[in-house]
Backbone:
């Protein structure tokens, strides 16, 4: 447990000091949100209608883009190999690193995104449901992104491959996330089930992603 | 199953049954296409366009079945270290992607007279589309990793993770579709299917399965030969 806490602290420090962490992901998020009205037009009614979906898409792209740093540098300088030989099981190491990524990229963006909703004329009563859905959904976004990062860790140009592999897996998160975010408008009989399914997806990812990621990393270190 | 782990034995079996499989494919396609396109009655609602169903529906079935075969082979490869299982999964993927593309293309052609548009975000088409992306990702993994032994290890994980996700994606797309499009959309599986349509459909499904088997067996043979060639080249480079 102590090792894992140290690992999380190390990853957070790296994300904070190295750049490419929270700041870059948030900047990317902001850029997407600004580009969207430029592409679609400044119609306030239309923007209000697409705001939850647009914010979700911006969120999952930003989380995905910040993902390949999870294992890449550790793989290159050999510290990942040390971690596999350490006392903590690799599955737990992987989980700790995914958790650190969520703390550094997923959670801040999930809290920040609804605040930026005013740029898209987001209905004020949707801010709270959107935040709740994004905090829950970003757990599985971070976990799946870390799985993608593990699958391509030894490849020189894996960035595009991650998008192709992981974005289809984001489909359920996006659908239930958006339908939970529309909660206040859609009524409780859609809001509650969507949120619960979103939570279920995150929990399934929490259990299955570490096993798959650890297997992928072991394959590269063989 | 373990008996055919030996590639030589597999190759012998393959060359013994390949002509029969090809013959069965041709006969079944002839029978299925004739009974589907000529004998089956036109639909009272859709007219002659309903005949697209005989090429569309079996392709969609096969697309799902081949992904299941890929996942099953990957699981067998993990559990039993069956040397041909990874090959089976790898060679099945492009064939499955082709069937998925066929299902998408014929679905789109069918959609034009039915819905008045080439593409409608219907639940079936959408989840087929995601399945197509999963196939592409799996194929891309094999191409991105140079060492085939390592590629096999990674591809297994990708295939199994995708397989776990297919039902979740299907469920989520159905949910999404029912939220956005109320029941006004035309349903393909309306009332019970009459036997004059069902029988040609089943013949076509068997024909598609035989076609897959023929393509898959010869693709596996080609892959085994490619591996042999690679080994010989490596040995040659090593000795000189």
Residues:
């Amino acid at each position: 447990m102590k090792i894992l806490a140290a690992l999380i602290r190390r990853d957070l420090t790296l994300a904070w000091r190295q750049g490419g962490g929270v700041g870059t992901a948030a900047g990317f998020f902001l850029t997407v949100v600004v580009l969207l009205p430029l592409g679609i037009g400044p119609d306030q009614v239309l923007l209000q209608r697409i705001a939850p979906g647009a914010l979700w898409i911006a969120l999952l792209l930003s989380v995905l883009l910040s993902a390949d740093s999870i294992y890449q540098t550790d793989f290159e300088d050999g510290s990942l190999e040390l971690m596999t030989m350490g006392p903590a099981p690799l599955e737990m190491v992987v989980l700790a690193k995914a958790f650190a990524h969520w703390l550094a990229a997923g959670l801040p963006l999930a809290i920040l995104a609804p605040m930026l909703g005013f740029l898209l004329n987001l209905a004020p009563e949707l801010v709270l449901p959107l935040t709740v859905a994004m905090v829950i959904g970003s757990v599985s976004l971070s976990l799946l992104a870390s799985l993608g990062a593990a699958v391509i860790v030894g490849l020189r140009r894996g960035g595009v491959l991650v998008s192709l592999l992981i974005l289809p897996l984001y489909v359920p998160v996006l659908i239930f996330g958006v339908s939970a975010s529309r909660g206040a408008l859609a009524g409780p009989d859609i809001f509650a089930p969507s949120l619960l399914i979103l939570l279920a997806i995150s929990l399934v990812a929490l259990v299955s992603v570490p096993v798959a990621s650890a297997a992928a990393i072991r394959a590269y270190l063989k | 199953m373990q008996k055919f782990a030996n590639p030589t034995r597999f190759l012998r079996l393959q060359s013994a049954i390949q002509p029969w499989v090809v013959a069965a494919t041709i006969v079944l396609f002839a029978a299925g296409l004739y009974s589907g396109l000529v004998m089956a009655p036109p639909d009272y609602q859709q007219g002659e366009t309903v005949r697209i169903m005989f090429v569309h529906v079996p392709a969609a079935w096969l697309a799902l079945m081949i992904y299941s075969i890929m996942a099953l082979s990957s699981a067998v490869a993990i559990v039993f270290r069956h040397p041909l299982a990874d090959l089976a999964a790898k060679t099945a993927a492009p064939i499955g992607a082709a069937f998925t593309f066929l299902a998408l293309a014929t679905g789109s052609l069918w959609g034009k007279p039915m819905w008045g548009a080439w593409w409608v975000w219907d639940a079936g088409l959408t989840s087929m589309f995601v399945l197509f992306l999963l196939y592409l990702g799996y194929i891309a993994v094999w191409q991105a990793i140079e060492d085939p032994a390592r590629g096999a290890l990674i591809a297994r994980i990708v295939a199994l993770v995708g397989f776990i996700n297919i039902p979740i994606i299907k469920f989520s797309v159905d949910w999404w579709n029912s939220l956005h499009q109320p029941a006004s959309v035309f349903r393909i599986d309306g009332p019970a299917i009459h036997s004059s349509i069902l029988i040609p459909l089943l013949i076509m499904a068997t024909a598609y399965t035989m076609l897959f088997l023929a393509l898959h067996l010869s693709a596996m043979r080609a892959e085994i030969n490619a591996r042999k060639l690679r080994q010989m080249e490596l040995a040659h480079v090593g000795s000189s």
In short: Chain B has one domain: 49-181+197-235. Residues 30 and 196 of chain B are 17 Å apart (CA to CA). The helical segments of chain B are 7-39, 53-80, 85-115, 123-144, 148-180, 195-239. Chain B touches chain A through 27 residues (CB under 8 Å).
